[in-house]
Amino acid sequence: MKLHWRDSVRAAADLAILGFAVTAASLPLLTAGAAVGTASEAVRHFQAYDTWPRPSSLGAAFRGRLVRGLWVGPAFLGGLFLVWLDVLGLRRGVVPGGPVVLSAVLAVAVLALGWAALVAVLGGRPRAAYALALSRPPLLLAAVGVVLVALTLALFVHPALVPLLVGFLLYALHAVTARLR
Hints:
Oligomer: single chain
Helix content: over 70%
Structural class: mainly alpha
Largest sheet: none
Number of strands: 0
Shape: globular
C-alpha cells in the first residue's frame, strides 16, 4: 500500500501533540512515569496498527501505571542532580581524578539514560531492559544515540517547541528497538 504525503504529516502532527501531552502530564513530576509509559503504549499501538488507541483505553492505562510509576519522576530528577554534583565537583577539582573520572561519570550517565529509554519502550520493565541491553549492546548504544540526537535538537529549537520532541523521541526509540531486536 502506497502512503500519501498527508499520512506522514498527520503522523508528525499526532506525535507533536503526543509530546505536548506527555510534557503536560509529567509536570506534576509524580505522574511522569505513568505519562511516559502510556505514551509509549500509544506509540507501540500506532506503529502496529497505524491508528491511535482510544482515549478511554489510554486513560485506563494511565490510571493503571500511576501508582507503580510514582517513583520514576523523582528518581530521574535525583539521578540528574547527583550527576550534576559529580560533574561540578570533578570540574572544580574538589574530587580527585580530573578529566578521566569526569569522562567515566558522563559515560555511565549516558548509558543509564539509554537504559531508561529502553525501560520506557519496554513498558516500564527495568529488568527486561537490563537483560536486553546486556544481550544486545548495539541496541543500548542506538537508544543512547537517539536520546543524544533529541537532546542536541532540544538545544537548537525554541524552548516552547522542546516538548514536541518527546513524541518524536518515543517514536524513534520504538523504531530503533523494533529494528534491532
